[in-house]
Amino acid sequence: MGYKILKIIADMIIPVFIRLEVINYPELPKDSGALIAVNHIHALDPILISYVLYPTWIHHIAKEEIFRFPFLAPMLNWLGVIPVNRQRPGVNSIKRTIELFSGNKYVCIFPQGTRRKKEFGNIKKGAARLALIGNVPIYPAAITGLEKVRFWGLFKRPKVRIIFGKPISVEKRENTKEEIDILTNELHKSMLDLYYKICY
């Protein structure tokens, strides 16, 4: 019920700030979990991903620093956000993510590790590692335009595009350093291709 109320509120607020276009809605698996990998350009990226995939509940991996804000922590915990130390990802965050996969849940990660507004840059190996450990497909995605949002510029409404790509299977792949590198490169190429398709 609470999640639905958040969606109703978002329906009223989001169109005020942006014009949203979603390309290729993903068909997420019903019999397994999945990892959604998106580039990171704005603090609102997680909210928008959850918004466009509603009513599917998306768990997000986020830097642990934001849990230090007393007014944010309860909401983040209720939403099932997974805190992670970006310098030293701990066992607890990995364990929690794998538990979600085991329950056929969906997790969103931003493989770049930080926000990048001007250049796509490289991605880290965490997404590949989690997918291989959890034996779940990766759904690459890209987002553009959200970096143009200004809260003091109401009704300017920049065009924001989100595109989802074909899932990357990890079946018959082993959790080895070599395979992690291969999968990371494959994911990076897929995300970059999607990014350039909507980057105009």
Based on the model shown, name its key terms:
200 residues, alpha/beta, Glycerol-3-phosphate (1)-acyltransferase, seven-stranded mixed sheet, 6 helices, 7 strands, 37% helix, 18% strand, globular
Q: What is the number of domains?
A: 1
Strand % is 15-25%
Poorly predicted ranges: none
Rg is 16 Å
* Distance linking N and C termini: 38 Å
Give the CATH class: Alpha Beta
- Element order: H for helix, E for strand: HEEHEHEHEHEEH
Mean pLDDT: 89
Write the CATH fold name. Glycerol-3-phosphate (1)-acyltransferase
CATH architecture: 3-Layer(aba) Sandwich
Q: Summarize the main sheet.
A: 7 strands, mixed
Quickly count the helices.
6
Gross morphology: globular
The CATH fourth-level homologous superfamily: Glycerol-3-phosphate (1)-acyltransferase
Strands of the biggest beta sheet: in what spatial order? 1-7-6-2-5-3-4
Structural category: alpha/beta
Number-wise, the strands total 7
Helix fraction by DSSP (H/I, runs of at least 4): 25-40%
Domain Phospholipid/glycerol acyltransferase: 34-146
GO molecular function: 1-acylglycerol-3-phosphate O-acyltransferase activity
Organism: Anoxybacter fermentans
Protein name: Phospholipid/glycerol acyltransferase domain-containing protein
